[in-house]
Amino acid sequence: MKIEVNKVNQKPFIHIDCDSENEKHEILCAIDGLQRSLRGSIRGQEVLIKFNEILYIDSVDKHCFFYTQTDCFETQLRLYELEELMNDSFIRISKSCIVNLDKIKSLKADMGSRIIVTLENDEKLIISRQYNKAFKERLKGKRL
Questions:
Q1: H-state helical runs in the chain
Q2: Of the candidates 103, 144, 101, 139, which has an alpha carbon nearest to the alpha carbon of residue 121?
Q3: What pLDDT does 20 receive?
Q4: How confident is the model at residue 70 (pLDDT cuts 50, 70, 90)?
Q5: What is d(CA 104, CA 72) in angstroms, rounded to the nearest whole number?
Q6: Do 34 and 52 meet the contact criterion of CB atoms below 8 Å apart?
Q7: Collapsing DSSP states into helix, strand and coil, what is residue 96?
Q8: Are 99 and 125 in contact (CB under 8 A)?
Q9: Which of 40, 41, 36, 56 is nearest to 104 (CA)?
């Protein structure tokens, strides 16, 4: 197998030469799996966490963390990079937070046009007024 990566017009381009369709399928599945995962660290160990396991992503003092049901992982990526990387299930809800829409248990109106989001693990997040309209638009047609 030969793998060649080039950058063309600011977008990465990967060229793969392989011997069989089976090998090609395995390589494409591996690449697809990596794209739907986020690398993070916890207690000095690096791990890959699938997007669908992530409840939300938070930025504190220029450090980004993502949260699953049971753990908190740190990532070296910035919040804006994570926002671009994540799939359509994720949306920014404040200046420092991105939430997974698929992990929302309930919504509640709050004072000042804010919304309180309760996640599957019963953690509560606040959608700020600035991001409220985009959040509501995104929810149209999406069932919670």
A1: 21-35, 79-85, 129-139
A2: 103
A3: 83
A4: very high
A5: 18
A6: no
A7: coil
A8: yes
A9: 56
Q: Is 30 helix (H, G, I), strand (E, B) or coil?
A: helix
Closest CA to 100 of 74, 114, 113, 82: 82
Average of per-residue pLDDT across 6-16: 69
β-bridge mates for residue 108, sequence order: 116
- Helical (H) or strand (E) element with 115: strand 115-119
Six-digit token string for 127: 């959608």
3-class secondary-structure state, position 37: strand
Strand partners, 48: 39
Closest among 14, 36, 41, 16 to 26, alpha carbons compared: 16
Predicted pLDDT of residue 127: 96
- Indicate whether 33 pLDDT > 60: no
